[in-house]
Automatic annotation (TrEMBL):
Keywords: Exonuclease, Hydrolase, Nuclease
Name of the protein in its database record: Exonuclease SbcCD subunit D
Alphabetized GO MF terms: exonuclease activity
All residue ranges annotated as the Calcineurin-like phosphoesterase domain in the record: 3-200
Keyword Metal-binding: no
InterPro entries for this protein: Calcineurin-like_PHP (IPR004843), DNA_Repair-Maintenance_Comp (IPR050535), Metallo-depent_PP-like (IPR029052), Mre11_N (IPR041796), Pesterase_YhaO (IPR014576)
UniProt keyword Transmembrane helix present: no
Pfam families: Metallophos (PF00149)
Length: 394
């Protein structure tokens, strides 16, 4: 039985978009997050004694690749070599072969060239494994080389296709490189397809298993949820997959219903929400508050809540950083109408006087009213506002 890891899209040294408002301590965690995620994957590989690791493209981030990232990966590969674990890498659109890769990897690492190649290895239990793939030569490589992947006619061994590209029916927004459909992959008669490029984990087929592993660490709000790699185990009959999360932190979006716009109540509600979320690890979140009443909160009060939430996380190791906080009024149209009415009429003393006079001149009403000199404009307007709100709810 063979055991291997399918990973992709490490994007070491990729810039992070959520940085300007963060405390230094949180930003430093963010910048090191991908390195820590990769280290966890290597630790797992060594502990589980896998036969090999596949990296299906975009190990580095083209414009931002540093000496630090190259030395880091070399040391990780040397750790794997010491444990007898092999590595198979294809380069993708973010780290094409023309981008000056001159790093000398340990001899347990195989890098596919720009033309489709096949490499054979023997697992620890004696299975013959055939790996097929190619690396991008240019960063804008749209050529489709699937026709050059050999068809498995041997009826022996385990055949694995490695491809960095876009499923023709993909619903994700990444740029489209080397488009393919399932029929073309199925025609190769492989036992497994290890895909890269799409940063969300996705299974395209069960027989044969065709998977995107997703990226190993989210970099912004659109790369949400748990991140990691796929552990693949099995034989030439079937290969089973299991997702293993290794992310340093999670990007996520949440909605939170609130029943008060008092700033202390809002703050406390969010603190309680963060406390529940904190048990699941570090997060950078977009939070939308949903309010179903007619009250409004001032910009100054809302800003005060935001600033205090940020202050709370500055020295917290297991932080929940609220990167964006929005308030959604469910009765927004009614509130806007009410505010328009108040702005147009509440300060118009002449109009108020005319309205009061009309009330007192109606014999059906005036007997229920107190002395006109006791009428308080502010109280009467407040009562009118409450009655208007009641009518709007109907």
């Amino acid at each position: 039985m063979v055991k291997f890891i399918h990973s992709a899209d490490l994007h070491l040294d990729s810039p992070f978009k959520s940085r300007s408002k963060m405390p230094t301590s949180i930003f430093e965690v963010l910048m090191e997050s991908t390195y820590n995620s990769v280290t966890r994957m290597m630790d797992f590989a060594i502990e589980e004694k896998v036969d090999f690791i596949i990296i299906a493209g975009d190990v580095f981030d083209q414009a931002n690749r540093t000496l630090k990232s190259e030395i880091f990966m070399k040391r990780q590969f040397e750790r794997l070599k010491d444990s007898g674990i092999f590595v198979y890498i294809i380069h993708g659109n973010h780290d094409p072969l023309t981008d000056g890769f001159k790093t000398s990897w340990p001899d347990n690492v195989t890098v596919f060239k720009e033309n489709v190649e096949t490499f054979e290895m023997v697992s620890g239990k004696g299975e013959r494994i055939f790996l097929h793939g190619f690396s991008y030569y240019l960063d804008d490589s749209y050529e489709n080389k699937l026709d050059y992947y050999p068809v498995n006619t041997m009826n022996q061994g385990i055949h694995i296709g490695i491809l960095h590209g876009t499923y023709a029916k993909s619903r994700y927004s990444q740029e489209r490189y080397t488009e393919f459909n399932l029929e073309v992959l199925n025609d190769k008669l492989y036992h497994y397809w290890a895909l890269g490029h799409i940063h969300q984990r996705d299974q395209l087929s069960d027989l044969p298993p065709i998977h995107y592993s997703g990226n190993i660490q989210g970099r912004h709000k659109n790369e949400y949820g748990e991140k990691g790699f796929l552990l693949v185990e099995g034989d030439d009959v079937y290969l089973d997959t299991r997702f293993v999360a290794v992310q340093e932190l999670i990007f996520a979006e949440y909605q939170l219903e609130i029943d008060s716009l008092n700033k202390q109540d809002i703050y406390q509600k969010i603190v309680e929400f963060k406390h529940r979320l904190r048990e699941k690890g570090r997060h950078i979140i977009q939070l939308e508050l949903v309010y179903d009443g007619e009250d409004v909160i001032s910009d100054a009060d809302f800003t005060e809540v935001i600033e205090l939430l940020k202050e709370d996380e500055r020295d917290i190791r297991q932080f929940i950083w609220v990167d964006e906080l929005h308030l959604k009024y469910m009765n927004q149209d009614n509130i806007a109408l009410l505010n328009d009415i108040k702005a147009s009429y509440s300060s118009n003393k002449e109009l108020f006087k005319e309205a009061v006079n009309a009330l007192y001149m109606d014999p059906r009403l005036n007997r229920h009213l107190g002395p006109v000199q006791d009428i308080e404009q502010e109280e009467l307007l407040k009562e009118g506002e409450e009655r208007l709100k009641m009518l709007m709810r109907k």
